[in-house]
């Protein structure tokens, strides 16, 4: 039987290496996947697309988010919903902690 819940006390309790990105899968099943990211300053995920709707939730730091042709600033508390196949990318201006929530099997 699957575990009935997943509990993480503090999603900000993560640190990036001096120059890199750390990612940790917090939850993954046939309907959704949640990944915690921590970016060192200056690190980026280059522009790409995904076949699923996705949500970004920024927990710490300052970043620039590419969303299609637009660039937006992101900081603690920023929420982004992205439709499938939207080109997107992230560049960390400071150390950034972010959640990526992929909705793999929406109705």
Account of the protein in words:
Helix content is 0%, strand content 51%. The protein has 107 residues and is mostly beta strands. The protein has one domain: Jelly Rolls, CATH 2.60.120.10. The strands form two sheets. It has a five-stranded antiparallel β-sheet, with no helix packed on it. β5 and β6 form a beta hairpin. The chain is globular, with a radius of gyration of 14 Å. The mean pLDDT is 94.
By CATH, the topology is: Jelly Rolls
| CATH class label | Mainly Beta
Number of helices: 0
| Architecture per CATH nomenclature, i.e. the level-2 architecture | Sandwich
User: Describe the biggest sheet?
Assistant: 5 strands, antiparallel
Number of strands: 9
User: What count of domains describes the coordinates?
Assistant: 1
Strand content: over 45%
Give the uncertain stretches in residue-range form: none
Question: What layout of secondary structure does this protein have?
Answer:
Blueprint lengths: L20 E8 L3 E8 L4 E5 L5 E7 L2 E5 L2 E5 L4 E4 L5 E5 L3 E8 L4
Antiparallel strand pairs: 1-2, 2-9, 3-8, 4-7, 4-9, 5-6, 5-8
Q: How would you describe this structure in keywords?
A:
107 residues; mainly beta; Jelly Rolls; five-stranded antiparallel β-sheet; four-stranded antiparallel β-sheet; 0% helix
């Amino acid at each position: 039987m699957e575990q009935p819940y997943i509990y993480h006390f503090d999603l900000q309790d993560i640190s990036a290496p001096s120059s890199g990105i750390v990612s940790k899968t917090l939850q993954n099943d046939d309907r959704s996947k949640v990944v915690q990211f921590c970016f060192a300053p200056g690190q980026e995920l280059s522009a790409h697309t995904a076949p699923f709707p996705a949500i970004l939730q920024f927990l710490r730091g300052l970043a620039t988010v590419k969303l299609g042709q637009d660039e937006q600033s992101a900081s603690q508390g920023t929420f982004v919903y992205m439709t499938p196949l939207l080109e997107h990318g992230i560049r960390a201006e400071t150390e950034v902690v972010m959640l990526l929530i992929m909705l793999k099997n929406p109705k």
